[in-house]
């Protein structure tokens, strides 16, 4: 069953995001919300870990959380898709289950 | 689809309550149903009517309360978590011999079984926390 | 009422925050609903089930014995992640001996702890229908 993994903490603050990526399976999706949105940027100490995961997992970020933290979408890792709250709901519908990595 | 939403953190301290409210609004806007919103841990603090934030800021408890009333939703505060954190409805305050109650309209206090039932009955269960 | 596969994910140490205690309260209530319940202990969650917890010095109630009662409530699938233990310098010997009694096998005591590696844990997580995190 495809799972939507929701991460909400910055990968530089907590291990939750890293732990999430250690448990995703091919075909899953990862959505970054709240402070986890900072993980979307390219050129961070976390970028390689996320890029590796993206070879078989779809990655999304809640656009509002990126903008709130003064980060523009053109600085994101290539291939990360931006969604709004409606898109967030769609992701939970499209995936059979969700797991929040708090 | 039917959703159960779990909120583990209180208003303002964490973004969870804001995110969950925006998510919940989108759920209804897109024609889905909310079976229950269950507040656990410090999440029960979303149910107090005594909050007075600065005038130019959002009043989360009231926003949840109005959202609940407008859409006839089931917003449940876990009784065990509420007792620990001093969130009381009238009957619980009386039962405990306390001199005040503080729950805001649109919420009710009930047991953890409501969370499990929410997971069973909904098609999707989404957790917001820290 | 339908039966669903419920997983309770524990990733935080006990006592520093309330999550371990309050998530255990949810687990115990879930027993009354006859669902297919599993617990996952990942990252710092492994500290929730260490042996020999002594909380006198910090003034909190020691609730570790409650994990021992899970077997009596038919909650007998406690997945513990090996890598999480190793990263923390722990082995299975550092954990409580959690068991359940199999009434179909003359009430023989069997271990509730199921040691899995990260990849196996991901597989177990992928099978769940409702995943609650605390």
Main CATH class of chain C: Alpha Beta
Strand portion of chain A, in percent? 15-25%
The oligomeric state of the chains shown is heterotrimer
Rg measurement of chain C, Å: 14 Å
Q: Taking strands numbered 1, 2, ... along the chain, how are they ordered across the largest sheet of chain C? A: 6-3-2-1-7
Topology order of chain A in helix (H) and strand (E) letters = EHEHEHEHE
User: Which strand-content bin applies to the residues of chain C?
Assistant: 15-25%
**CATH topology descriptor of chain A:** Hypothetical Protein Ychn, Chain: A
**Mean of the pLDDT scores of chain A?**
98
**SS elements, strand count of chain A:** 5
Number of domains of chain A: 1
CATH class of chain A: Alpha Beta
Can you describe what's shown?
The complex is a heterotrimer of chains A (102), B (130) and C (134). Chain A has helices at 16-21, 47-53, 63-68, 85-94; strands at 3-7, 29-32, 58-62, 81-83, 97-101. Chain A has 102 residues and is an alpha/beta fold. The relative contact order of chain A is 0.26. By secondary structure, chain B is an alpha/beta fold. The mean pLDDT of chain B is 97. Chain C is an alpha/beta fold and 134 residues long. In chain C, a hairpin with a 5-residue loop joins β4 and β5. Helix content of chain C is 24%, strand content 24%. The mean pLDDT of chain C is 97. Chains in contact: A-B, A-C, B-C.
Tell me the layout of helices and strands.
The complex is a heterotrimer of chains A (102), B (130) and C (134).
Chain A: E1 3-7, H1 16-21, E2 29-32, H2 47-53, E3 58-62, H3 63-68, E4 81-83, H4 85-94, E5 97-101
Parallel strand pairs in A: 1-2, 1-5, 2-3, 3-4
Chain B: E1 2-7, H1 16-29, E2 33-39, H2 60-71, E3 75-78, H3 79-85, H4 90-95, E4 107-110, H5 113-121, E5 124-128
Parallel strand pairs in B: 1-2, 1-5, 2-3, 3-4
Chain C: E1 5-10, H1 19-30, E2 36-41, H2 65-69, E3 78-81, H3 82-87, E4 99-102, E5 108-111, E6 113-116, H4 118-126, E7 130-133
